[in-house]
Task: structure prediction
Amino acid sequence: MIKTYFVDSFTTEAFKGNPAGVCLLENDISPEKMLNIAAEIGFSETAFVKKMDVDGVYSIRYFSPKKEIPLCGHATLAAAKIVFEKTPVVVISFITGENLNLTITKSDHNIVMEFPIYELTPLTTPLAVLHALGLEAVVNTSYSPKNKIILLEIADADTLAALKPDFNALIHSYKNINGVLVTAASNTTAYDFHYRYFWPWAGTNEDPVTGGVQTFLTKYWSTRLNKTKMKAFQSSQRTGYMTVELIGDKVLIYGTAAIVLEGNLIGD
Result:
């Protein structure tokens, strides 16, 4: 049996934010079994967490229903929520499958995740992608080589919220990427920028609330808005929000999460 949790990340309410599975492992299991479990759970990501020999240090691996994912923000937040609920520690380290060391801190009502910053490169706007998204024009197009994600900035947050992509056309519009992120400056004072993330190439059609993209999105908007601490809103159907802060070559992601299910996964 594997102790398993469902956690809604980047929200304080159940059934909002982004749901993640969290499996606490007593023993190592194969990547194939992790993928099968992630596919069975069906969320955009499931995190597999195992305590290491050093106190407060855990290995973590992320799987979508289709493949292993190098880094995931909302599943990291979900896993941290479980560890902080079950142990008295206030600082933990997660070691990812790529040997990235993520420092996670419990701070009042927030969980603060320290993620790396990855650079963007210019990209010619792919018209087939725009057509599949239902867009006619963009403000800027960039590419994150590390994440294999195209970033499209558009002019209006309401247009962003109203997007209804043709996912069949989208997945055939570009090769060898993980996803497309569309973003816009906020049209209210409550947030600084909005975004949505579509990734039928590597996971589900749309990720409800995405933390991992802040590895490049925070620096992008920090440069655009001349701010280092900002509030971000993901205008998916479930919606979610987070505070992000650029500090040197790191981004701090502040978030909350709600545990919605606890149980045991049975099966070989």
